[in-house]
Amino acid sequence: MKKIVLLVEDNDFIRNMYKLKLDKAELTVIEAADGKMALDKIAQHKPDVILLDLMMPNVGGIEVLKELKKEGLVPSLPVIVLTNVLDPQIVAEAKALGARDYIVKTDLTPAQVIEKIQPFIK
Question: How many domains does the chain have?
Answer without folding.
Answer: 1
